[in-house]
Prior knowledge:
Chain A has about 230 residues and is mostly helical.
Amino acid sequence: MDVIFENGDLFLSGFLTTIYISIFAAILSLIIGIVVAVLRVTPSGGLKVLAIVYTEFFRNTPFLVQALALYFGLPKLGLRLQFQVFGLEFNQSFVVGTMALALYTGAYVAETIRSGLLAIAPGQTEAARSLGLSMMQTLRLVIIPQAVRLVIPPLGNLLIALVKNSAVLTAIGLAELMYNASQVNNRTFRTFEVFTAVIIFYLVLTLPLGWLVSYLEKKLNPLRAIRLNLRGAR
Amino acid sequence: MTPVIEFKDVHKFFGKNHVLKGINCTISEGEVVVVCGPSGSGKSTFLRCINHLENVDRGNLLVNGIDTASPRANINKVRMETGMVFQQFNLFPHMTVLQNLMLAPMKVRKMNKTEAGKTARALLERVGIGEKAEAYPAQLSGGQQQRVAIARALCMSPKIMLFDEPTSALDPEMIQEVLNVMRDLARSGMTMVTVTHEMGFAREVGTRVIFMDEGNIVEEGNPQEFFANPREERTKLFLSKILKH
């Protein structure tokens, strides 16, 4: 165990980086997912095609390849990928890593939200439109609030997958938990201890996330009862 | 009597299925029209064309002077003036009864919250469920849900009310409470188009009955005449089936 405590600062900074990148990527992927899902259910041509191409591309290629392609490809396009905001430095690995993780997860988020939108009975849209609400108002006020409640459990699973996938970003040199642990391992060859510690760190993140999701699911149970009631009435 | 709804040779197709085959029909202000016919006769489509839930494939359909068949028509304007009540109620399950009623007046008519709340509560009283304002739709019986749905449509102060089989999903004992609300509404002078098999309702408050079959209006007339002396064989057959028991 001493190898963990001796390198405590490395483990801790890696752990924090994993948390940061997970938060940033989660928020971004949610935004991407909502926008893409809405584009896919509304009947407008060009953007809809773009949304389909995006989801199919990112769902059907390996994340590792996407991350590497973005990491080595984007600088060739002359993009500046380092930022300094409020005295915090975001290096290229972090910026590209966040983008890659958000783009990859966003595709799955979009599909999940889309399935939620499609699960809402068409009568809801008809009722809203018959009252004079526009398509966008109907989505925003009637369909999305109901769909969000439906898709919380699957979105929770995606969030947990996102946290775990951040380990892949080791490949583009992001100093997150896995990367720092590998550094320690390369130096000490205490593989068993090092990676047991890594597993525990990941569990500390993912298990509470799972609990949070089941809590939210239970909290929204009234609505679930409503849905079951409606089904019974038919 | 000013005409508020005018069907002019209206055709509607679902794929190859020709569901409305050249409908001509004029409905005037204050009329209470009951549309009946066997399933698949096109009666629901007839109704749903009026507020453009189905688009018209050929012909013209004027509602309050706006041709809904025209691609340039402001459909939301038509819908603001045309309330609709559905067979399955279609209340918004994530909102309370009061929120269901206040949504459209606030978002479409830009009414302020106090005013919308006042209108909503008054209408809930009118349909006899003032005490359920804070309940969620799932906590109400079918009859109560349908009365909320009627109040929700009335909140927009529509000129026309459309009812699509409003009592078909209800238990027998709840049908009357909904019909009572509809009777009151009819007597208040509201223009109503109702697809229903409640022939008692048609006799009592209807000003005209329209019988449809296979996408055509087969026969129409005032209720007394329609039920006592149907002219067409098809109408007689239909009436003998639904009035026998």
